[in-house]
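Handout for the seminar on molecular recognition.
Each group receives one record of this type.
Step one: identify the two inputs.
Step two: read the structure output and locate the region that could contact glyceraldehyde-3-phosphate.
Step three: write two sentences on what you found, then compare them with the reference statements printed after the record.
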Amino acid sequence: MSLVPTGDLVGRAAAERGCVAAFNVITLEHAEGIVTGAEAAGRPVILQISENAVRYHGGRLAPLALAASSMAGSAAVEVALHLDHVTDTGLLHQAADAGFSSVMFDAGALSHADNLAATASAARWAHGAGLWIEAELGYVGGKPDSPASAHADGVRTDPAEASAYVADTGVDALAVAVGSSHAMTERSASLDHALIARLREAVPVPLVLHGSSGVPDTDLRAAVLAGMAKINIGTALNVALTRTVREVLDGKPALTDPRKYLGPAREAVAVTVREMLAVLAP
Ligand code: G3H
Ligand code: ZN
């Protein structure tokens, strides 16, 4: 097993009417926990690093990307490396050299016409560099700059528009707004499964669910059955990691060795990944 292209994992999942999970990496411990959890589940996985995570690391992409790629290379399961929610074309253009096989280009804050032009240009560049590219149409809310909630008028993805958008931009996968929202710490999102089925019929490329941390197990399974092929999960790992750090440090002001709290936190990430992969297993 080894570092494999994202397009291979998503393409295979879509062909089998299953899914592949993509987990967000912010720290080294996230990457280690995700790979350990995927190995325990015996399932392939995508490690994704977002533009926001790169900003957290001082704008430097290489250190975390190289660490994640190195872990992928020695994993006991297939692991792909994906650059997530990229708005900055300067960062986009670093993706191939940093070891990524795929990117998600996020032009969701732009007008429809500007989104289309910017995404088509990003797709031309990505394909020229040998990268698989995902884009978003509609608006999955919950990010700090989100203009609307997941339930506001007009934020859900329209199937006919989605079909035209994929044809006009040439993207390889499409993130769609169907009721999930980023950064939910409670699993209370309610998905529009009829809309997912209509999108699956209309759109010729794999569909991606963002904001999956807030989606209950039953809805996640139903979303995969209805046609979601890539399931993005970030916040659920942070909830597990941070809860564990709090528990370990509670009442222990003399504890200063980070290994004493980051080790259990990393294990909590691994357990969450294993459990989520069991929910998403065929
Ligand atoms: O692109 C990443 C995801 O959409 C993660 O969303 O943090 O709400 O699970 P989440
Ligand atoms: Zn997302």
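Reference statements: The chain has a mean pLDDT of 95. The two ends are 20 Å apart (CA to CA).
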